[in-house]
Specification:
Layout (H helix, E strand, L loop, with lengths): L5 H11 L3 H6 L4 H10 L11 E5 L5 H9 L4 E6 L2 H8 L7 E5 L14 E7 L8 H11 E12 L5 H21 L3 H13 L3 H10 L2 E8 L8 E8 L8
Helix pairs in contact: 3-4, 7-8
């Protein structure tokens, strides 16, 4: 099976948007882990005066995590899937949350402008065709000293981690998704993790993209060795880009 990319991947997410929340609700710790990753950004207080970009917001789970931890922040949430974004925007939100339909590769064309104090991306980078180009764009959107938080399935590199990931996907997620008519998407999601960077490789990718203070932090539960939070910073010495 080849990975889904671009329009095919967006169409698959559009179709899956109607049942996506139901499936992720069956994942123990899913929402708590997102909140943990947001807290790991180390942003001050309740987020008063901060501008945050939620890159690849899906149906809004990552947006809700940002809002829960940093309720006073101004949040721009973007996603390439119109179906996922409609589900996110239809949920009840307090003032200060804006949804934009665009891909991570076309932020400037959609009017998404920095500087942001932090960018948060959950389950995004293994699904883009050119993660280095997206990282470069993200770096340009951050103010000097701004934080990047990446919440991602990135295997630690042990055979046991890949085995657990495959067992969960093939034993539960894929059969349920196939019954719901979304088998191709969830087969892609399994393979996208197996073929993407290990945690160490992704941390090095962040460093090569010009971020400093890069940390790769494991998440607890069955996802230990499978999912990580990556926290990094745009160096204070960088000049802001126009």
């Amino acid at each position: 099976m080849t990975l889904l990319r671009d329009e095919r991947l967006v169409a698959a997410f559009d179709h899956a948007s109607r049942t996506y929340d139901t499936l992720v609700a069956a994942n123990p710790g899913y929402h708590a882990h997102l909140r943990r990753s947001v807290r790991r950004l180390g942003l001050p207080g309740r987020g008063q005066g901060l501008r945050l970009l939620d890159l690849g917001c899906g149906t809004g789970a990552s947006t809700a995590a940002l809002r829960s931890v940093l309720p006073a922040a101004d949040i721009t949430a973007v996603d390439a899937s119109a179906g996922m974004l409609r589900r996110a925007a239809a949920k009840p939100w307090a003032d200060g949350v804006t949804f934009v339909h665009t891909s991570a590769e076309r932020l400037s064309e959609a009017g998404v402008r920095g500087p942001y104090d932090a960018v948060f991306a959950a389950y995004l980078f293994r699904n883009v065709g050119d993660p280095d180009a997206v990282l470069a764009a993200v770096r340009g959107l951050l103010r000097p000293g701004g934080r990047l938080g990446v919440h991602e399935y990135t295997l630690r590199g042990r055979r046991a981690d890949r085995a657990v990931w495959t067992l969960v996907c093939r034993g539960f997620v894929q059969p349920v998704a196939t019954l719901l008519g979304d088998g191709p998407l969830y087969r892609h999601l399994w393979r996208s993790v197996v073929e993407f960077d290990t945690a160490g490789c992704f941390a090095r990718r962040l460093g090569a993209a010009g971020f400093d203070r890069v940390r790769a932090l494991p998440l607890p539960g069955w996802q230990t060795g499978i999912a990580h939070t990556f926290v990094a910073r745009r160096a204070h010495g960088d000049r802001e880009e126009a």
